[in-house]
Amino acid sequence: MPNNESMLEGETLLAKVRIFADRPLDQIARICGYVGPAGRLLRQKFYSALVLAKGFQVPGREDNTIKRRGRQADFTTRVHGNGNLLIGQTYTHRAGIEPGQEFFIEIQADTGSIFLWPCNGKDLRV
User: Fold this and answer.
1) Which of 22, 33, 70, 112 could form a disulfide with 7 if both were Cys (CB 3.0 to 4.6 A apart)?
2) Its pTM surpasses 0.70
3) With the C-alpha atoms ordered 41, 44, 45, 51, is the resulting torsion angle positive or negative?
């Protein structure tokens, strides 16, 4: 979580940007404190702070803060071009599936549904 207290805002931000106007924008953002805990540059936060400091209001936002949900599991997937079907770590973790665990794949011909049945070292083919 970034330390919002060290991120300049308003007139302080604009003054610092004016001072370092001859430098690359990424470097200015770092100077103004828009760096995440792992050292990653927080460009979107920096750009938003600049827009707000210049007096522009973001339509439809009362508090003008950026709030994102992040990546969310949506329980859908696509078949890749090579024919692989990827389930993903979010789903396997939620299902309690451990690395190395084996499954028997059952396909229902009438619906096209795919089921994964834990093998537990047994051959489940009928």
Assistant:
1) 33
2) no
3) positive
Residue 123 makes CB contacts below 8 A (sequence gap 6+) with: 104
- Residue given tokens 């599991």 in the structure block: 73
In angstroms, the CA 44 to CA 68 distance is 12
What whole-number distance in Å separates Cα of residue 2 and Cα of residue 89? 26
Q: How many residues does the chain have?
A: 126
- Give the distance, in angstroms, between the CA of residue 25 and the centroid of all CA atoms in the same chain: 23
CA 5, CA 12: separation in Å to the nearest integer? 13
Tell me the domains of the chain and their CATH numbers: 4-53 (no CATH), 70-126 (2.10.260)
Collapsing DSSP to helix, strand or coil, 106 comes out as strand
Tens of pLDDT, residues 35-64? 988 889 999 999 989 999 998 876 655 554
* CB-based burial label for 109 (10 Å; 0-12, 13-18, 19+): exposed
In the block, residue with structure tokens 């991120």: 7
What is the C-alpha R_g of the chain? 25
